[in-house]
Structures are given as C-alpha cells and as structure tokens.
Design a protein that fits this description.
- This protein has a single domain, classed as LarA, N-terminal domain (Rossmann fold, 3-Layer(aba) Sandwich), CATH 3.40.50.11440.
- 54% of the residues are buried.
- With 335 residues, it is of the alpha/beta class.
- It is globular.
- It has ten helices and 15 strands.
- Helix 1 packs across helix 4.
C-alpha cells in the first residue's frame, strides 16, 4: 500500500506561487460519471483518484485536478476560477485551518493545502493575506509545513506563535474557552481543511471537531462524548459567519484508533477529497465512509457504541447544516 509522506520542500512560493495559481485557475476538470442523488437540500462532493500517489508520494498535479473537479461539481460552475472568485474577494484575509495533531502519520496534506492557497490567490487575494494555521508551530513543522510569519508568500504559523494567542473568551455549553486570535480577529474568511478520522470520544472527527484546534482548552469540551460541545462551539459567530468552504483530506483516513492513528490497521487510503459548504453534511458523509470501512474491517459500528456522534444531530438542530443522508446530494466522481 502506498503511503503519503509530507515533505519539507518549501511550502511558501511567494509571488511566483500566486502567479502560478492564476494559470491553474483556468484548468478544466474532466468529469467522471456522477453517482449523486438529486432534489436534495445540500451537496457534498467526493472525488477519488487512485493514482494520486506516485512512488509513495502525493502527486501535486493530480491533487490540483481533484480539487478543481470537486469545486466545479459542488457549484455547477464550468471553470474553477469562477468558483474561487465566487468565494473570495481581493480584500479578504483568509485563514486555512489545517489539522496537524498526528504529525506526518495522519495530518492535513501539504500539497492539498498548497492547492487551496493557490486557488484563493487566483481570486485576487494577496499571498501575504492567506494564512495556514493550527494550534502549534511545532505541530505544523512536524506535519511538513514550513513556517512563515512575516516573509513573502503565504503565511503559515500556529496560534502559539508570537503576536497571536488565545484572547477572545466565549461560552461553549457549560465551559468557557478562548478562541484563537487568528480566527476571531485576524481573518475575514475561513477554509476548514480537516482530515477524516475516527475519534475515541466523539466517534469521528472532520469539519466540526477540527475547531477544537481553534480554542485554548479543548479538553474542557470532551464531556458527554463531545455533545453538545462540538455543536455549541460551531455556533460561535467567527466560525459560523467566516467559514466559506470545507475541503476534507481523505487521501489517508482512520476508521479505528483515532485521532492519533494509534492502530495502524485502522488507517487506510481512500485517496479522496470531500468538499462542501455545509460542515454538518460533510461530517455526515464522512461518518458514513468511516462506518462502511469499519464494516469491511469487521469492526463494531460506531453508531451502535457509546461514542455514537450525537453531536451531529445537535448541530443540525441548531441550524448549522443537514445531517440526514437522504437530504444530502452526495456526488461521487472518479478521475
């Protein structure tokens, strides 16, 4: 089985990357036969490319093509540059929230993150106004990202980096936590870029739970298998109002032993990405993917265990999105 190893190759390409992004933005995706339903209230697109790994490493060009196809299918637009321009304006300051807690083993793809940043830049957003971020500088570095807090090109840093930190206190259920200044004050728009994983307490983690990396005390939000805490956190205005897009990394995923990937047999390679603007719908689809894999591995369904992710229904009840698969247009495409 191929494995993706994030490299330390330079993540930041400055103006050259932004210029390249404009060239990539006109790329026409090649559509495969669609297997989605119709007449639904929200859409989640899954694009799979079994050749995305080459010699054990992720193919950057195929990653860009997968993202372009997914975005065009999500929006019914013919050109991916039209998608980016509909999501972002040149005056935006855009944060890209990755998930790097598991290091090289199971963190957001460096190449996919670069492709997202290039797409945002193609909408006219200056590279220096695009910020890749997570909790800690050290976790970003361990996952293969190159830090850049003030140089040319895309920014990349942790909330613990100098000048940022956690300052904006919010009430999340029965707990008080502080939001990252990056999310609360420094950006005007957000791309959520999680990785699909099983979770020992919450049942699963993808878009909604990725914001546990946006607060200073995530441990205070784990009671009741994270219900209603995940839903309550995502009601916070900086999250609910600033999120423009979710791009979920399913190149690798974890169906058992998450979120750190402590059981190697629980890690597999769907070689897919999921895109949506509805985080609840994306998580509902992600949960279905995990459950199907667990069935293949003859593991107990999470839905029948004590860690059934009831927070999905809570989030839907808050009006944060759709959790009913019958009302989700789950479009599947292969390249």
């Amino acid at each position: 089985m191929a494995s993706r190893k994030a490299t330390r190759r330079e993540f930041l390409k400055g103006a050259a990357v932004a210029a390249a992004a404009v060239g990539l933005s006109g790329m026409q995706p090649t559509f495969a036969d669609d297997k989605g339903s119709s007449g639904s209230t929200t859409r989640v697109v899954q694009v799979t490319c079994k050749g995305v790994f080459k010699d054990g490493k992720e193919d950057p060009e195929k990653t860009r093509r997968m993202l372009a196809e997914a975005l065009c299918r999500l929006t019914d637009k013919k050109k991916v540059d039209e998608v980016w321009q509909s999501l972002f304006k040149k005056e935006d300051v855009v944060g890209v929230k990755v998930n790097t807690i598991a290091g090289h083993k199971l963190s957001s793809s460096v190449e996919l993150t670069k492709a997202v940043c290039e797409g945002i830049a193609s909408a006219g957003v200056a590279a220096e106004k695009i910020m890749v971020w997570d909790r800690h500088d050290r976790e970003l570095k361990k996952a293969g990202f190159t830090l850049n807090s003030s140089g040319k090109g895309f920014r990349c840093f942790g909330t613990d980096s100098e000048g940022h930190g956690y300052e904006v206190e919010i009430q999340v259920g029965s707990a008080k936590v502080k939001l990252s200044r990056i999310l609360a004050d420094e950006i005007t728009a957000l791309v959520n870029l999680p990785i699909l994983k099983d979770h020992g307490g919450a049942g699963m983690t993808a878009a909604l739970k990725n914001h546990y990396g946006s607060v200073d005390q995530p441990g205070a939000l784990h009671g009741g298998n994270c219900n209603p805490f995940i839903a309550d956190l995502n009601k916070a205005e900086p999250i609910a109002k600033k999120t423009r897009l979710i791009v979920c990394d399913c190149f690798k995923a974890c169906c058992d032993g998450g979120p750190a990937g402590n059981r190697p047999k629980g890690i597999w390679e769907p070689q897919s990405i999921l895109v949506a603007t509805d985080p609840v719908a994306l998580d509902a689809v992600g949960f279905a993917i995990i459950e199907e894999r667990r069935k293949e591995c003859r593991l107990e369904p999470i839905a029948q265990s004590r860690r059934n992710p009831k927070w999905l229904a809570t989030a839907a009840g808050y009006g944060l999105g759709v959790n009913d698969l019958a009302k989700i247009d789950w479009v599947k495409a292969e390249m």
